Amino acid sequence: METITNTKGMLADFVEELPKVELHLHIEGTLEPELLIALAQRNGVDIPYKTIEAARAAYQFEDLQSFLNVYYLGASVLREERDFYELTLAYMSRCKAQQIRHTELFFDPQTHLANGVALAAVMGGINAALRDAERDWHISSALILCIERDRDPQPAVALLERACALGGIAGIGLDSAELGNPPEKFQEVFKVAKSMGLHRVAHAGEEGPPAYIWQALDVLDVERIDHGVRCLEDPALVRRLVDDRIPLTVCPFSNVALKVFSRLSEHNLGRLLKAGLLATIHSDDPAYFGGYLSENIIETLSDLDLTAEDALLLERNAVEAAFCTDQRKQSLLRDLDQYGASYRNLL
Ligand SMILES: [Zn+2]
């Protein structure tokens, strides 16, 4: 069988229409400057940027913390249930345009609660948009509640229980400032999440050391690692991740914007795949990092001299890593296989 060859133009064409799965996406990170400014005006929230251009110019970061400061400021304009609906529907319409067939979204309820927004408003708006996108565009989705690791772990269990009572939560995640906030601080809430039958993921090994990835696996019993790019520093950890087929949800544009790698051509995605790791590509906070899922895949594969066949592998990995039913996975894999075969026939 002829394999798909790689020029950047062909790769872009191939990836744009490729059926895709997104597994690492913070819904607050999809807040484009246009909506940010509109919501700040509508809700009377005073933010330092008065124009779309000024907001965009502020999206320059030195590290994870400098990004989080801008991200939480942006999230402060989200006040009403309809704000969360509009934000989520705007992202889901991007999914439709980019052939994303299944997406798993993170949200940060503690930020919104601290801003005085009711949990029911946050979840009501997000879940209504997800339902509408499934009905109108056949995009399946799952919602993952993220615990912010730079906050006190103590109230997290009660928050999780309240959110689950409202319905629509598929899993728990751990995000925000990694350094100095090891996964083990959150053992209790992850134990409760498991007892409730929820899926479990955690950001680890982005800025933090491989030890944080071990903790996420052994103490939090996670099923996926978000980022995890620093695992290559520890060969025993790589063996564990390969043997247990633990997915890594890698976000290349994010890693470059936050200086985990100095440029895309230095990203270790190719080495992760070569090591046999179940790596996938996602967009993390696309409004802040310069591109959505298609752009992340196209630019990364192009800069690393990877091919359209690698794009297919990444999407097969993402289907395997997804928290959807086996039936849905079979359907997604069939679409991928058909797409690959029809593209090869054109060559
Ligand atoms: Zn993330």
TrEMBL record:
Cofactor(s) listed in the protein's UniProt record: Zn(2+)
Record-marked site positions (Important for catalytic activity): H227
Chain positions recorded as substrate binding sites: D285
Gene Ontology CC entries for this record: cytosol
Signal peptide limits: none
Location of the active site: E206
Entry superkingdom: Bacteria
Catalytic reaction(s) noted: adenine + H2O + H(+) = hypoxanthine + NH4(+)
CDD domains in the cross-refs: ADA
Binding positions for Zn(2+) per the UniProt entry: H24, H26, H203, D284
Cofactor-binding details, from the entry: Binds 1 zinc ion per subunit.
Swiss-Prot/TrEMBL keywords: Hydrolase, Metal-binding, Nucleotide metabolism, Zinc
GO function term, MF aspect, one: zinc ion binding
GO biological-process terms attached to the record: adenine catabolic process; hypoxanthine salvage; nucleotide metabolic process
Gene3D superfamilies per UniProt: Metal-dependent hydrolases (3.20.20.140)
Keyword Transferase carried by entry: no
Domain Adenosine deaminase: 19-338
E.C. designation(s): 3.5.4.2
Entry function: Catalyzes the hydrolytic deamination of adenine to hypoxanthine. Plays an important role in the purine salvage pathway and in nitrogen catabolism.
Family designation: Belongs to the metallo-dependent hydrolases superfamily. Adenosine and AMP deaminases family. Adenine deaminase type 2 subfamily.
Protein name as catalogued: Adenine deaminase
Organism for this UniProt entry: Acidithiobacillus ferrooxidans
